[in-house]
Amino acid sequence: MLSIIILTLNEEEDLPPLLDSIKKQEYKDYEIIVADAGSRDKTVEIAKKYGCIVVKGGLLPYGRNRGADVARGDVFLFLDADVILSHPKFLGNAIGEFNRRKLGSAGFKLVPHQGKAIDRFAHFCWNFVGWAMQSFLPHASQAIMSKKEVHKAIGGFDEKIVFVEDHPYVREAAKVAKFGFITDEYVLVSIRRYEKDGRFNVYVKYMLAGLYMIFIGPIRSNIFNYKFGHYENKK
Questions:
Q1: Is CATH 3.90.550.10 what the domain over 2-215 is classified as, yes or no?
Q2: How does pLDDT run across 140-150, given as a tens digit for each residue?
Q3: Residue 26 — pLDDT band, cuts 50, 70, 90?
């Protein structure tokens, strides 16, 4: 079984498209777990309507771990709430490549489903870096696949990390099992953070965060002023 673990905080607008894309999958051996960090809108109601298991979440590493705690699957797929699976064969193809390459964890290509040419170019560059560095410096963001045994072996996500917890997770996972960048599939992602905070500001912040992790280590203090839920839809 595949356990799909989704983090939410006031995601009543973006969660349904993701859940719809999951329900349309030809691959059916999955469960959906929503780790909610105290939504004040209809997020939890929507998740239950779709038949999801709902657990209490929190900041990103904590929420991912709480979802994994109740997961029954042998493989986990951690997703941000504002992504969409690209087409109905996504899960089957992704699981197929994951097993065929005997991976313990994996990242995915990210393609914006909105936005401008600069957004597509920036994600193209990120995808190239993720593919090129998969054997020596793993990258993953917004969608991570991991074996349950690997997740347990590294103690899950480091809950002391306050920003960009995904890269340290897959780099630790790569120490105990093979990491790979899935090439058969891609995930559609939102560009809402770029529109809200400004593209230049976001690109620079993530570049600096990447350099920080390479030369100093995981980001355990909020020097980059990250706020979970900062990008929620507000009416």
A1: yes
A2: 999 999 999 99
A3: very high
Q: How many CB atoms lie within 10 A of CB 45?
A: 11
Q: Which alpha helices (H) appear in the chain, and where do they start and end?
A: 15-23, 43-49, 60-70, 90-100, 117-132, 148-153, 166-173, 192-197, 199-215
> Cβ contacts of residue 54 below 8 Å, gap of 6+?
33, 34, 36, 44, 47, 48
Residue 75: pLDDT band with limits 50, 70, 90: very high
Helix (H, G, I), strand (E, B) or coil at 199: helix
Residue 210's pLDDT is 85
Residue 229 has a pLDDT of 63
Say which residue the tokens 């990120």 belong to.
126
Domain boundaries, the chain: 2-215
Say if strands 84-85 and 105-112 run parallel, antiparallel, or are unpaired: unpaired
Q: Which of 202, 190, 169 is nearest to 115 (CA)?
A: 190
* Spatial separation of the C-alpha atoms in residues 41 and 18, rounded to whole Å: 17
- Contact predicate 33/55, CB 8 Å: yes
Q: What is the model's pTM?
A: 0.92
Higher pLDDT, 224 or 145: 145
Residue appearing with tokens 């489903």 = 113
Tokens representing residue 7 in the block: 């983090």
CA distances from 96 to 99, 170, 210 (A): 5, 20, 30
Q: In angstroms, rounded to a whole number, what is the distance separating the alpha carbons of residues 7 and 79? A: 7
